[in-house]
């Protein structure tokens, strides 16, 4: 069992002993720290408001209740969106004039996990310094709770399914008419979480025929919820069987989007951002893009084709957003299927991604597979090494950087080594006790071989 405390929030497995897992006591402690942090940022404000929403995890209702009532105990008003998505909560925070937001979700982690994702008053993730401040507060447990007459209020708000969808439909580059006239037919895998509510509702507004697969929001994930090829055999088969135009797959909190082509092949989660960026950049000539160091070179190629500039950031949504703001980026995100479109908001949003992708396909008037084949072909291999307490990750990374110092080495986040035809990125995960090993090359065989080579080199260092 595991509890991971990082600047991006707290994530852990349900059950077990306190401080080792995400128990009710740990949930209350970190909700208290977040509430104390938000209050400290608004010392002269009479009442603080925080928006709370959750995915459909089995533990979600329990954790949400603990978090909401802890905030109320601190004198904070809570607006509860109930079953929601990460981007929906991000959209709701500024619309509610709230002072922050908490999403109860462990994203792509299996069902035994849950987490508190923490937002600022803009509906954006906290930065590193703010995250550290909350961790320090949690460790000190120096909280001052409200007296009985000063307790916060609790209210439910079920309007944000419609509000979020309407916000997406109102985006200038979302061509609602073109999509409605295209008569698309798609299969949606909502992994039995809130994507099964939100994505079909969006598609209905766009006159897209929707065949639902695993769209019952009961938290019983029918497969590993990370939207990778090896987990998506059911939707691949159903897309072909139903003769659908393509398939849509989201993770439990709906901030990652993967596409399945009409022949059942993977469009590639790396290429979700590439396709959406191609569409946006084609209408905003010279626009800039950002993705993280673990993302495909294909985004760089497409950006330069349209006359823009591509920039890489450290991994993590907050780092991508910071770099996007610095470079006046028109679209960016992460190669794991996370689309960040500033015209909407600075957060990964699968609803926005679906609408932009549909607009692109409607204008191109080609099949999903033909669209995918029009982009530069890169192949990625995503691997990991499980960590144990005795493994010195810093030593591994320093050794690799030194060994390959004559190559193009970037150490802003782990170690990325760029070779002429391929690259590898090694970094310690913020969400799991693992070292992530991402490689990319001109063929799958080359990407896999590069990964195996470095895994063996790491094992030699550990030994």
From TrEMBL:
Family statement drawn from the similarity comment of this UniProt entry: Belongs to the phosphohexose mutase family.
Annotated Gene Ontology cellular component terms: cytosol
Cited Gene3D superfamilies: Alpha-D-Glucose-1,6-Bisphosphate, subunit A, domain 3 (3.40.120.10), Alpha-D-phosphohexomutase, C-terminal domain (3.30.310.50)
NCBIfam families noted in UniProt: Arch_GlmM
Name this protein carries in UniProt: Phosphoglucosamine mutase
Natural source organism: Polaribacter vadi
Keywords (A to Z) from UniProt: Isomerase, Magnesium, Metal-binding, Phosphoprotein
Molecular function terms from GO: magnesium ion binding; phosphoglucosamine mutase activity; phosphomannomutase activity
Keyword flag Phosphoprotein: yes
């Amino acid at each position: 069992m595991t509890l991971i405390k990082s600047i991006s929030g707290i994530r852990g497995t349900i059950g077990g002993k306190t401080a080792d897992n995400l128990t009710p006591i740990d949930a209350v402690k970190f909700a208290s720290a977040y509430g104390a942090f938000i209050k400290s940022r608004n010392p002269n404000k009479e009442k603080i408001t925080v928006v709370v929403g959750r995915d459909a995890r089995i533990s979600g209702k329990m954790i949400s209740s603990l978090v909401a009532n802890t905030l109320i105990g601190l004198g904070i008003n809570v607006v509860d969106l109930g079953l929601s998505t990460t981007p929906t909560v991000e959209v709701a925070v500024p619309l509610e004039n709230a002072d922050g937001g908490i999403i109860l979700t462990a994203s792509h982690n299996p069902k035994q996990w849950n987490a508190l994702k923490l937002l600022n008053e803009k509906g954006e993730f906290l930065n590193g310094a703010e995250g550290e401040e909350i961790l320090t507060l949690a460790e000190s447990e120096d909280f001052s709770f409200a007296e009985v007459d000063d307790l916060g209020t609790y209210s439910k708000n079920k309007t944000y399914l419609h509000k979020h969808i309407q916000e997406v439909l109102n985006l200038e580059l979302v061509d609602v008419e073109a999509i409605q006239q295209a008569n698309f037919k798609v299969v949606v895998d909502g992994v039995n979480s809130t994507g099964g509510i939100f994505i079909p509702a969006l598609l209905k507004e766009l006159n897209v025929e929707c065949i639902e697969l695993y769209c019952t929001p009961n938290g019983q994930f029918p497969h590993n919820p990370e939207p990778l090829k090896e987990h998506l055999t059911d939707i691949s088969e159903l897309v072909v069987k139903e003769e659908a135009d393509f398939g849509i797959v989201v993770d439990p909190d709906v901030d990652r989007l993967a596409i399945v082509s009409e022949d059942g092949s993977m469009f590639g989660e790396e290429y979700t951002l590439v396709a959406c960026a191609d569409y946006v950049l084609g209408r905003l000539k010279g626009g800039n893009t950002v993705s993280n160091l673990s993302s495909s070179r294909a985004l760089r190629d497409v950006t330069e084709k349209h006359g823009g500039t591509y920039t890489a950031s450290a991994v993590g949504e907050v780092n991508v957003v910071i770099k996007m703001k610095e470079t006046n980026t028109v679209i960016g995100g992460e190669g794991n299927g996370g689309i960040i479109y500033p015209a909407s908001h600075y957060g990964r949003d699968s609803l926005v991604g679906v609408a932009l992708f549909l607009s692109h396909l409607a204008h191109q008037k080609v099949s999903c597979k033909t669209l995918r084949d029009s982009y530069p072909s890169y192949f990625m291999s995503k691997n990991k090494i499980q960590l144990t307490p005795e493994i010195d990750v810093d030593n591994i990374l320093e050794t690799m950087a030194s060994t390959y110092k004559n190559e193009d080495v970037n150490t802003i986040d782990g170690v990325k080594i760029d070779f002429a035809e391929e690259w590898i990125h090694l970094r310690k995960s913020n969400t799991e006790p693992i070292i992530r090993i991402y490689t990319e090359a001109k063929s799958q065989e080359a990407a896999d071989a590069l990964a195996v080579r470095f895994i063996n080199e790491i094992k030699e260092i550990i030994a």
